[in-house]
Amino acid sequence: MTSSLRAGVVIPTVAALKVAISLSGLPDLLRNDHQLSSPLTSFSQLQEGLYLFKHGIDPYSGGTFRHSPLLLALFSSVLPTSTLFAAVFWALSDAVAAWALVEIWRARQNVSSSTRDGLVALGYLANPYTILPSLALSTSTLENTLLLLAVMFAAQKKAAPSLLSLAFLSHLAPPAILIFPPLALLLLTDPHSHLASPQKLSLNKRRIFPLVLEFLIYAGALTFASTLVAGSWNWIPQTWGTWLTLPDLTPNPGLWWYFFTEMFDHFRPFFLMVFSMHLVIYVAPLCIKFQHDPLFALFILTGVLGIFKAYPTLSDPGLFLSMTAAFPEIFPYLRHPIVTSLLHLHAALLLPLFHHLWLTQGTGNANFFYASTLVFACANGAAVMDSLWAGMRIAIGKNTEDYGIVQE
Amino acid sequence: MKLAHLWGFIVLFNTSCLCRAQLSEYFNERLSIKPLKDGKIASTLTFTTVLKNGTPRDPGLLHTEDESQHYRLFPLALGQILREYGVTEMHLTLNAGKWNYDSWGQPAEAGVGNGAELWAWIGDGALARNALAGLFCSSLGSLDELRTTSPVEVFRPEGSLPSSSLHQLRHASHPSESVCTENLTPFIKLLPCKSSAGLASLLNPHKLFDANWHGMGVHVLWHEGEGVEVRLTFQTVSDPLRSSFIRKQDWSLESLFGRKVEKACRAAGSSHIQVALPRNTPYNISPQPTVAENDEALYDIQAVNKPINVAMQYMQEFQRQDLPSSATLSIQRTLKESSQSHGQLSVILRNHQPNPVQAIYLETMPWIVQFYLHTLTATVNDIPQPSVFSNLSYIPAIPHSRPTTFHVLLSIPANSTLRLTMDVTKAFLRYTEHPPDAQRGWDLPPAIIYPLDQPRMYTPTLLVDLATPDFSMPYNVIIFTCTLVAFIFGSIFNLLTRKFVVVSVALKGRD
Fold it and tell me: Which among A308, B234, B265, B278 could disulfide-bond with B197, CB atoms 3.0 to 4.6 Å apart, if both were Cys?
């Protein structure tokens, strides 16, 4: 009982602390930071869209407003947009995400509470990569919450809320649709850890179709509702189209922006296609390899998306790092955890420094920041490979003195 | 005898034909010279050609065969472009410098924005722009869809428009375009006497482009029932104090243009020099004007003895006085840039009148600077007052193509200062979209303040500093990023596809 209290204490405390920090004026400094919010998730852009929407100007008739019409409808009718309210709402969203992560952990362990609950919650709430975007009121925080909710409901075998969360998430950020296959597998199997005893999945494949259908119905309904709000179909190229055509080249910690800034014009469509399709490649192999543990496949896929998606913020790789808290069984088998941690430390210091040097100070150039995004991608790649190695290595058992493990 | 009668008849017939032909076109020229309160001299040369009863071509009939064009005075090179593209009204100005409304008052021609500005009521504008660029040797080709807007509230037709609804307004300005001799030469070619006679002989590039402010304009209007008018203008603001040892405002045609008017242009219907006479200070003007009344002296070039060199001499040294601004409004526009990604645009309007002024504030901003309208704030004498702006209209920019059109009606209370501020974000461009000297920054077109029922006013242009990528690295970036993607992809699939095996370390050691 005391242990479950710990999560119950940690989450509200950190959430309240976050509201207090928000009121100190720090968010105004962070709000326009490129690393914390992309043009697709920035709060300033959301406010701009709301302003246009309220003044009868179609925000999707051009311009740089790339948020979903549902967010417009939500913030212009139900939710007020004052900074105080936004701070509270974002802190609440973080609290819900942390609670969802704790629930995922509990479902994986098949317990109603454990002594690690508070730690798992802190793993999300105390992660600087998720705190800072949340303080900057980036809507990527809301996307993280939706993803964790979708996973939590799936782990609890609640298909409808899980698919609805995922539909809403992929409405806000279409690349998230890639986590549908592992999520569906999770709904059909169980969330418990089977990494140590991999076995072939025996599953009636027909049962997956109702899930697909249900997801499509939700996604269709959300699309239809968005069209009603926006008054036309203009919002689709302005929001979803952005992910594929990359019209906004604002810097972010990801790999796309500088690549397509420097891309030769005649190769642009080809590489846009390659970069978009590249994300799809990982889904099937991961689902096949980890068919015995779809939650782990989903976890790795989140890491891959965090590295390679089009408009990432720090919260995308941050989500992957926080989710590791729910998979403690892999910790003893991580391949090179020191190297990964040092790479992350390196990137975390370089990213803000070189961003400032380039854009504010004017003493560095774009290559400085680009180089630090490469280091950051290496760090995230190393983290994904660490986890992937550990997730497979765990099946072989503990190290013994006379034997080593290699890949053929 | 009969033959003589016949000849007489033929001559009579021919002269009557000639008379009619002469009536159908006429050409007037005028030079007006005005001293300004800061000691400078504004001079405006205006050459007007009117094609009597001419009508613009209907843009709807562009695909049909046009009537043949035959002009005596009307510039054929321009006429061909006007008819080819169905231009009804067109204004092209090429200026260099910042028009100082506070000291110089309203200009004789309203279009004084720095750089090139082209606006036309036209069927389809894209091709006419290239034809004009060719005619005037100017880079008007860069006035493409990235800069073209249609702010009809501010650029109303100055002449008449045919009732057909096919006419659209196309407006574009290009602040980094400069005006120089290569633009003046084709300008002079449009005049009937070129620069060999009449007032056009004063178009001396050495002096014109030496002036503190100079600008040329080509205006085409259609007045219903009257005809098509082509008005070529050249405005300069020169500084006589700059070159004189004694601080006197003295000027002459020689000092302003480096030339006298040697002979009159026979083709001109009227040819006048108009001099605004100074008040409250003794002066001497020579030669004797043809007419002098109401603080104005008038010379009829065709009547006076030539060569003529109008000269003004002041008895006293020039005294700089702190006079109140001679314009309705004083305008200031600045862009504060805290970083290469964000900034704040602010416009300060001072109303010097004892009565409130209503004015339209128009921004036609290229997409590289995007507005955050939700941060738009207005203060009057530093007190927030959001009610001063109304009728807000906003067409957001489309990245990599359409510019922003933003206009708002401001009511500026009497004797007060209105300050508008708005946050802006600056775009990040593809490396191919940057100009060759990317680090210099981008010139932003002037904003236009249009006090209702008065000529429009232009703010100075702005320079915006955009973040630049490294231009030497496209290959390197493609290689680095692709390598990293391939490395992570390869490592992941390496792990996923290869089998784990247990090997005996002890055995290995023995080998």
Answer: B265
